[in-house]
Amino acid sequence: MRIATIETELASASLAQKLADAGWTVKVEADRPNRILLKWGDGREDSTASVADLLTGFILTDWLYEYIHRRVGVLHPYLDTEQQEYVALLVLHGLRHEDAATAGWTWEPWRSRLDRTFGEVLGRAAAGSIHVSVDSILRFRARGLMRAAEASIDEVVRQFLSDQEYEEFVAMLRYILDAQSPSQQVLHVFCSDERIWLCDEEGNLVRDREVSAAAVQASEGEDVHAEDLAMSILITRAPCRIILHDLNRSASWPTFAETVERVFQDRVRRCDHCTTCAELRTHLDDPAFAPGEFPPAMPKRYD
Q1: Do 275 and 207 belong together in one domain?
Q2: How many alpha carbons lie under 13 Å from residue 173 in its C-beta half-sphere?
Q3: Nearest-angstrom CA–CA distance, 250 and 194
Q4: What b/e readout covers 70-80, taking b as 16+ CB neighbours within 10 angstroms?
Q5: Residue 141 domain-assigned?
Q6: Do 106 and 203 belong to one domain?
Q7: Does residue 36 contact residue 6 with C-beta atoms inside 8 Å?
Q8: Are residues 262 and 163 in the same domain?
Q9: Angle formed by the axes of helices 81-96 and 143-178, to 10°?
Q10: Average pLDDT, 10 consecutive residues per value, the chain (303 residues)
Q11: Angle of CA points 80, 258, 246, to nearest 5°
């Protein structure tokens, strides 16, 4: 029989339950809930390895989640409880992604390294009872993993706030659109990585002088963003139907096409690889075609 006192500041109740469910003898004193007395050893040579494997699994799930959750609260206290939990889950999921490198290690090598570490520590119990401080071992043996978790927190929070801002922006546009009655217009929206243009059903470019003038005035002397101008025209005209021609290849998320779909919802349908898009791609691929230009001789049909 081997005996170890395992101490962890994080998720101790979860660890005790996992050890008990695995069939080991577990005792937790009421006044020291973070300290677990563990007895194991059933004559099998792999019993210590099994405990080490269980501890490693606990570290990379419950313990790591609690560590991330606490750090999110310390680093970003303005997030509410649900937001902190959501960010913590996103960070943990990101760290576990098998293609992502974590402080120079991918997930499985980290698991193997921790498994060997706990196997070595628990192996010393053959000579008598030992004390295992999970938190101390991790601060010494897994500093890189903990640093990577903190770096991931900042990146995930930045993306989370950006996504939240985008959702509020879409909601505002929908509110403005819903205040208007749909017109009878059908507009075609063409989006590429470098330009956006609107056409009516006959293939004529759609411009709106009043909206453009208002946009210039609101920009206070700065250049008017093409996406903002195009969205303003679409909201103002409130077309009953939009045909979306998405020619994007490497535009970053969210693309203008995705925003149009989010705002206009069931009024939007994407073209089905129409001949117009095929012809336009030949112009977009032409190196002589300047990024700021409209394609010459816009087609008059969209089949």
Answers
A1: yes
A2: 22
A3: 10
A4: ebbeeebeebe
A5: yes
A6: no
A7: yes
A8: no
A9: 120
A10: 89 94 89 90 71 93 95 95 95 80 73 89 76 90 84 91 93 93 91 84 79 58 72 90 87 85 94 82 63 47 46
A11: 160
